[in-house]
From TrEMBL:
<dbReference type="Pfam" id="PF02687">
    <property type="entry name" value="FtsX"/>
</dbReference>
<feature type="domain" description="ABC3 transporter permease C-terminal">
    <location>
        <begin position="284"/>
        <end position="407"/>
    </location>
</feature>
<keyword id="KW-1003">Cell membrane</keyword>
<feature type="transmembrane region" description="Helical">
    <location>
        <begin position="383"/>
        <end position="403"/>
    </location>
</feature>
<feature type="transmembrane region" description="Helical">
    <location>
        <begin position="280"/>
        <end position="304"/>
    </location>
</feature>
<keyword id="KW-1133">Transmembrane helix</keyword>
<protein>
    <submittedName>
        <fullName>ABC transporter permease</fullName>
    </submittedName>
</protein>
<feature type="transmembrane region" description="Helical">
    <location>
        <begin position="325"/>
        <end position="351"/>
    </location>
</feature>
<keyword id="KW-0812">Transmembrane</keyword>
<dbReference type="InterPro" id="IPR003838">
    <property type="entry name" value="ABC3_permease_C"/>
</dbReference>
<dbReference type="GO" id="GO:0098797">
    <property type="term" value="C:plasma membrane protein complex"/>
</dbReference>
<dbReference type="InterPro" id="IPR051447">
    <property type="entry name" value="Lipoprotein-release_system"/>
</dbReference>
<feature type="transmembrane region" description="Helical">
    <location>
        <begin position="21"/>
        <end position="48"/>
    </location>
</feature>
<comment type="similarity">
    <text>Belongs to the ABC-4 integral membrane protein family. LolC/E subfamily.</text>
</comment>
<dbReference type="GO" id="GO:0044874">
    <property type="term" value="P:lipoprotein localization to outer membrane"/>
</dbReference>
<keyword id="KW-0472">Membrane</keyword>
Length: 419
């Protein structure tokens, strides 16, 4: 019952005309500053999310959002029963074994240390679909190399190269004293089927091929794989739930000693970590703009308390107590903060929606990027965090004028001032 009158008085104090116009001007400046700060912050965070989304989309052309890896060693058995169990987990769309490891690529002129990844036929078809390629990247006995790697090794389609595991070097040294190892020293010679351009990391040192060829290069046994690529829906927002479900499955079945779950962000933590830090550093910096705008509320509310000292006296005579006076001015500051936050969030949503649909603001150097306009990806969590932080700041800066108003209302000389 006491809350409703306080809310009504706070609304009246917020929007009623003051005796001193400067109070209205300061309040308008505070509201405008909060609107601009919130909208700018949300737009910047959404653009940074957009760049993260593009990086994510490029990585998942070859990698999967999550991988099941052996807890110990580099190889694991993958029976059909294991694939069936993983496939039955909520959110899992596909589970496919892969073979991956370091190898040495030896061309006619030089050699390069590369990463060989062998993928299934389904994964190959998915890669072709995602990149819009009509002809296969590789066949069962050929490979596809990144364009930067091809340039460094001076490779072209139809060229023949030797790709072998570093373990062969160790076997070669052992064969000097153990001649029976000589038959194992065979260096696979493969043909380059194509040169791909996907993502810089892949372009620099990746070789893609079939699982069978990768196992032969990496000296893996027929029934062993490096891990299992697990994919969910294409929506990145569902990725966290997918990882949680996989880890819950491992724990519920007591498989912690056998398998570990590695999300894509963990495998490439240097890249995604820097992008996430950049996002929250931007949040911290731009949040200062909101704090400065909110601090002007302190002056506005304090001047309102002085301007309304007669009304405060009458309210005290009507029976309002000190906590209620404090609540009135805290609610007034909170309402201004809430209004600024709501309007700022709505403005940010409109700007981001227009940019996402029409791409009006283009990148300064389109030739240097794979996209022409600034990408945008709005996340509900960002809107919630910014809104809660802004309203909390507005409430905090309202504490001083609220106690000031309570002090004025309880002053012994207030009766004389009112008269």
């Amino acid at each position: 019952m006491r809350f409703a009158p306080g809310l009504w008085i706070a609304l009246r104090y917020s929007f009623a005309r003051k005796r001193f116009r400067v109070i209205n001007i300061i309040s308008a400046i505070s509201l405008t500053g909060i609107i601009l700060g919130v909208s700018t912050l949300l737009v910047v965070m959404s653009v940074l999310n957009g760049f993260q989304q593009i990086a994510w989309d490029l990585f998942v052309t070859v990698e999967s959002p999550a991988q099941v890896l052996p807890a110990e060693g580099t190889h694991m058995e993958v029976p059909d029963s294991l694939l069936a169990q993983i496939g039955g987990i909520e959110g899992v769309v596909s589970a496919e074994p892969f073979a991956e490891g370091s190898a040495i690529l030896s061309g006619k002129e030089n050699s390069e240390l590369v990463m060989v990844k062998g993928i299934s036929r389904n994964a190959h078809d998915r890669l072709m679909k995602q990149t819009g390629r009509e002809v296969p990247y590789f066949s069962r006995e050929t490979v596809s190399v990144g364009e930067v790697l091809a340039y460094k090794a001076k490779l072209a389609p139809a060229a023949e190269v030797k790709i072998f595991s570093p373990e062969l070097i160790a076997l070669g040294l052992q064969s000097l004293s153990q001649p029976y190892l000589l038959p194992a020293l065979t260096f696979p010679v493969v043909q380059v089927e194509s040169v791909f351009s996907l993502q810089r990391i892949f372009n620099d040192h990746y070789v893609l091929t079939s699982r069978e060829m990768a196992r032969r290069i990496l000296l893996q046994e027929e029934n062993l794989y490096s891990g299992i690529d697990v994919r969910g829906s294409d929506d990145r927002a569902t990725h966290a739930a997918l990882v949680r479900n996989l880890r819950s499955w491992v724990q519920e079945n007591g498989l912690e000693d056998s398998y570990v779950i590695r999300p894509l962000e963990e495998k490439y933590r240097d890249i995604f970590g820097v992008m996430e830090i950049e996002k929250w550093v931007s949040f911290s910096v731009l949040m200062l703009v909101i704090v400065v705008a909110a601090l002007s509320l302190t002056g506005s509310l304090t001047m309102t308390a002085i301007d309304k000292r007669k009304e405060l006296f009458y309210l005290r005579c009507l029976g309002l107590e000190k906590p209620q006076f404090i609540m009135i001015f805290i609610m007034e500051g909170g309402m201004i903060g809430f209004a600024g936050t709501a309007i700022g969030a709505a403005v940010a949503w409109v700007i981001c929606s227009v940019q996402k649909t029409f791409g009006l603001i283009e990148l300064p150097s389109k030739s240097a990027f794979i996209i022409e306009a600034y990408p945008v990806s709005m996340q509900t969590s960002d809107f919630v965090v910014v809104s809660v932080a802004t309203i909390a700041v507005s409430l905090l800066v309202s504490l001083y004028p609220a106690f000031k108003a309570a002090g004025i209302a309880g002053s012994k000389n207030l009766s004389d001032q009112a008269n």
